[in-house]
Amino acid sequence: xSVTRSNLAAELLASHLVTVDHFVxxxxxxxxxxxxxxxxWIPSGVAxxxxxxxxxxxxxxxxxxxxxxxxxxxxxxxVTLRRIEQLLLITFGIEPRHLELWQVTRYKRGEAYDYHLDxxxxxxxxxxxxxxxxxxxxxxxxxxxxxxxxxxxxxxPAVAGRLVVWDNLLPxxxxxxxxxxxGRPVWQGRKTILTTWEREGPxxx
Length: 205
Known about the structure:
The chain has 205 residues and is of the alpha+beta class. The chain has helices at 8-15, 26-37, 75-92; strands at residues 17-20, 42-43, 66-69, 103-107, 113-116, 130-139, 143-144, 147-149, 154-156, 163-167, 181-183, 186-188, 191-199. A hairpin with a 4-residue loop joins β8 (147-149) and β9 (154-156). Residues 49-60 have low confidence and may be disordered.
């Protein structure tokens, strides 16, 4: 795995959203997909987010996908995830001990995730809020499946090996409503992503 590290942390600080192509080699993506194929997939859930008076926010109520939480995995998968975490530490200063368990999520044809925020219901959790989202595309669909940030007028195509990192919180610790996003419907093929979230403090289950 290799990544161009120059100014990426500064770019994230300035824009709150960074993409890095070829963050994970395609060969590693394919092996991860194979390793995950025999796991116990469950319907993806949506976190219960309290009501807000903010007029620009529409929290997701619709999600159709399947998720595999990587609690137990092969030694190869464990080594690979640790390498990814070290790259995130070197590149963005993201502490591995602040990361939630990695999840693999699969979207088949017609499946999507409505517009939502990745923060808003963990303020009282011992680990604090979800400070950042880390998303890696493992499998790209033939059509559809982009991650769309409507307030930013930015849509990021799902390309295998691509990393997307964004800030969920403002410096005040409140949710950054500009980061409302959705996983657009997959129209042909399948999309699979590897995801985790950086908490404000060390992650406690």
